[in-house]
Structure formats: C-alpha cells, structure tokens
Amino acid sequence: MPGKPDELFRSDLVALVPKLRRFAQSLTGNRQDGDDLVQAACEKALRNAAQFVPGTRMDSWMYRIIQTLWIDDRRRNRTRGTAIDPEDAYLSDEGRAANLPEDRMMLAQTRRAMADLPENQREVLALVAIEGLSYKDAAETLAIPVGTVMSRLSRAREALLPKLGLSQGRRQ
Amino acid sequence: MTRPPMMDKQHLAAFADGELSPEEAAAVVMYLADHPADQAWVDDLMAANAALAQAFSAPLHEPVPDRIMAVLRPQAEVIPFRPALRQGAGRLAGIGLALAATLAAVVVLLQPTPPAALILAGAVPADSPLRDVLNHQATGSSVPFGSGELTILASMPAADGFCRELELIDRQAGNLQVALACSDASGWVVDAVLAEALASASGADGFQPAAGGDAALLDRWLDQRGAGLALTPDQEAAAIKAGWAP
User: Fold this and answer.
1) What is the pLDDT of residues B156-170, one digit of tens each?
2) What does the alpha-carbon distance between residue A120 and residue A60 come to, in Å, rounded to a whole number?
3) Quick check: B58 contacting A, CB < 8 Å?
4) Which residues in chain B have their CB less than 8 angstroms from residue A157's CB?
5) How far apart are CA A142 and CA A148, in angstroms?
6) The CATH number of the domain where A77 resides is what?
7) 3-state class of A76 per DSSP?
C-alpha cells in the first residue's frame, strides 16, 4: 500500500524506540526534550514512510531524522542551553548502570561533559561511541565526509576526556 | 632494534572505536606494547566510550513511553471488522460517551433488530454456565456455549478484581456478541455487551472470528474499571487457580 505505513514498518519503528530515545537523550541531555524529539521524529517518519528504502538501515534513517529535527530546534532556540536532568532521574534503573557513588559521579560528569560539547561534535560522538555506528555509517547518517567524522571525534574527545579525569595531558 | 613509527591519534582512536581491520588492529597492538603512553591514551578512549554508553543506557531498560506508542499505533486499526460494525461504531461511540459517567451495565445493539441475547448484562448468576467459563476458561480457547461458541479474548487486572473480554459467535442464530465481564467482591458482572447480526452472505469462505480488534470498543468500560494491561498466560493461570481473588 503506497504512502501508507504498513504494519512491518510500524513494528520495526517500535523496536527501534529504545535506541532512538538513547540517541535523542544524548543529544538533548534530558529525557523530556529527548522524548519530544523522538515523538516528533516518529511522526515525521510515518508521514515520510514512502521515502524509506526497505532493506536499508532504518536506525540510520531515524538517527538522521532525529538529528535534523534537533538541529532545527537548536537553531530556533539559539539561546537555550542544554538542560541536564538532575542526576537522580537517571538513577531509577535499579542500579543497573552504577552501583558505586564514584560510578554515579562519573556518569553524571559524562552527561555534563557531553552537554558541554558543540552540537556537531556531540552528534558524532553519540553515533560512534554510544550507538556504535562505524565512521562510514555515521558519515552517511550525517551526510558529511568520513574525514569530518574523524576530526570532530578528535576535537570532541580532546574536550571530553579531561573532564572525565582521563588523559590529563599524557600526550602533547 | 627499530622502533615502529609513531602512530597518529586518529589511527589510535580508530583502533579504540573498532574501525580497523584485524591486520591493522594487530599492528596497533604490537605498537602499543612498546608505547605505554599511547596505550594509556587508548585505554582512556575506551573508558570514555564505555562511560558514554553507560551514561545514556537508561532508555534501553525502559518500555516505550505511551505518548510515543500513541504515535506509532495504527490509527485506523481499531475496527478491522466488517463495514456493518464500522458504521455502528460511530453510533456506539456516541452512546458510550453518554453512558460513560454512569457505569451502568449496558447492552448496545448495533442492529435495528436485536438478535437473541445470549449474554445478558448485569450480575452473572451463580448457576449460570457463563460463570463457569469466566472462572475456569483460559484466554484464546473456545468452548461450546448455548448453540454457539464462546472464546475468551483477554484477561486484565482491574481496580477491584479482574476483567475478561469474551466473544460469543452463534452461527445458527446468526449473531455475534462481544462482552466485558468484571469481577468484584460479589462475583462476575457483565458490564457491557455489544451485539450484531452475522453477515452470513458476505463471508462465503467462512466467518473469521474477530481477533479482539473489535473488543477495543469496550475500552471505555475497561477504563471505568481501571483495567490494566492484559495478563500473561502465566499470570492468568495463577488468577484462575486463585479463583480470581483480587
């Protein structure tokens, strides 16, 4: 049925939602804005389902939609910074992510450091380090050259690692 | 002994990110053995990757939020039934709204001529065969009932007990009923019965029992009962064993 999202498309999308929320929250820094983003992206995906090529990676396609919507939103709200959820909001996972206080502190620092990155570095780092995309897939998702993915990753890590208490000037 | 050439940071990062071929990765491993500072930097990159993955892992352990699910759920799928009921559904929605505030037991007839009602709204008498079925029958299984066949479509926990959706198809009498029965301290009560005549002419290759899609019409009564998500087979078996004690 052309133009009408079929059952398989919808169920594939539902299965992707946890990963999409993770990606969106790593961009927005908090779950409210992240879920707004995923919701808007799902609506857009259903409207444009005909543009999705079956057999290609739906996750990359959705990451792209999320990233585009997020950048649009950031452009319109230039002054608004990235609001981070209070640490507690992430600790409701029954200690799956962090048992020790120092682990929690590390995770809170990580989220803060991620939010401090420029948008274009944050999205590359999110796709590669969190979503596990290859440089090539990240480049295709963001429609940028692989070399740009690598240079943005480098800059992102130069800023991020010292804030995590890692790599304090060991080299250069 | 010749030292391997210095490797640039991007190459080491590519190693940490799993981008290199097995041969390239092996060369990096050899190189790192001789370069502890670079080894430490690669360790840090991997630690940062792990911290990032963990810091944002919460959504992977969470169910899809309702508001996102609402977007992804097919809108028109509520009544994948026959056109007769589809028209009726509009009327039903209106009737349902009018009654929503009262929690009265109702029978909604979707046909001008009422079919012989086999399930009656109201309290289920202690000696009724329906009570037996409600007490003991598992979801998905069918039993003969009157001159028809009765199937339990689903069981849900509710505020004061449990609710069960059932479907009765009576080909002989030419009618179909979908009903909602809920238990409370006093026993089973049929909250709502939706009935319609079977369109015998159209379904030449046999009538397909509605697979619960039409039961969505019962949603407003389920809401009033504070019904939750359908029980799993295990949960349902436990509830049957416990005599549907709340």
Assistant:
1) 888 888 999 888 887
2) 16
3) yes
4) 13, 45, 48
5) 10
6) 1.10.1740.10
7) helix
Residue B54 Cα to chain centre, angstroms: 30
Phi first, then psi, for residue B182 (nearest 5°) are -130, 145
Which residues form the domain of A28? 1-83
Question: Which range among A19-28, A48-57, A70-79, B38-47 shows the weakest confidence by mean pLDDT?
Answer: A70-79
- Cβ–Cβ below 8 Å for A93 and B61: yes
How many Å apart are CA A107 and CA A103, to the nearest integer?
6
Q: Residue A112 domain-assigned?
A: no
Contact B219, B227 (CB under 8 A): no
Residue A32 in contact with partner chain B when CB distance is under 8 A: no
What pLDDT score was predicted for residue B212? Answer: 39
Distance, in Å, from the CA atom of A21 to the CA atom of A11, rounded to the nearest integer, reads 16
The token duo for B86 is: 């589809």
Residues B102-142: tens digit of each pLDDT: 444 445 544 444 444 467 777 888 888 888 889 999 988 88
A64: in domain:
yes
Tokens of A56: 């290609």
| Residue in the structure block whose two tokens are 């505030």 | B101
Q: The complex's ipTM?
A: 0.86
Distance spanning both ends of chain B, measured CA to CA = 79
